[in-house]
Here is the input.
Amino acid sequence: MLFLCAISVQSQDFTKIDSIITAYPNFKKAEGLATKISLDFSSDEDKVKAAFYWLTQNIRYNIKQLYNPKKRSYNFRYRSEEEKQQKLQAFKDNIVTKAFITKSGVCEEYAQSFKKICNLLHIEASVIKGYVKNDAQEIGIPSNVPEHAWNAVKINSKWLLLDATWAAGYAYNKRWVKKFNSYYYNIPKDKIFKTHFPEDDIWILRFGRMNLSEFYNQPIFGTPFLASKTELLTPKTGIIAVNSSKEIILKFKNLKNSSKVYYSFKGQRFSLKPAISIDGNITTLTIKNAAKNSFLYIFFNKEGALEFKTK
Here is the structure.
């Protein structure tokens, strides 16, 4: 996963959390961290934010596993459903234990660790497995298997969605860049399907109506777009047909006039500025000499905002 989220946005304020968590010792077990959090924070919301923030600051993404994935398998026998669940939980607990000891992992380590801490804090949480897309090459090509895990947590009778993996940093040139991104704590429910698609129908029905094909046919949305109030009006999908005039037109609603917008196609050395027209709260970008069978990248203020595939 190449995370298109290189900026840190303050959709959630972690100033208070940071001032306390930064002084924490190097916990080797989830139990120690949960005990300390319960002493330092009183509300469930602050406890959850503390657990989330600690993981993003202390668990480093295993970049080798990203580029050379190894399939996890766990075979065991059981005589009852109760025994089955006990052994499954032992397997998950082992994932958490290794993550705390090595301070390294992939999405499964982040997600299972967050749920374990919430369990210890007596806060209801779930691990959600499903699909994500991070690169324009994936547009229009649904994956056969879910490849990501994130969390939902219930606070004040409402489910919050969060992804500690994506909040911790991003991959760049086969290196892990640690950079906290608060957007992925309490991800807006009306935007979750722009980046994440659950495998389990129950989570799909809770937050919207979309199928897997529709999910993969969308553009790639970066944090500068997601964290703003900007809406993409056209095109409706992530695949753009370049006509004989070789022009591509994109229309946005509520794009800030102060935003500096640029674009490039795959292989271009420098980004270019599109022709821009503004009518009220509608902004139209016109890109000339568009390349066919390529990838189009849109930048807001020098940060990756959108990716499309052209044909």
Remarks:
- Residues 1-10 have pLDDT under 50 and may be disordered.
- Residues 246 and 289 are 5 Å apart (CA to CA).
- Residues 81-102 form the longest helix (22 residues).
- DSSP finds ten helices and 17 strands in the chain.
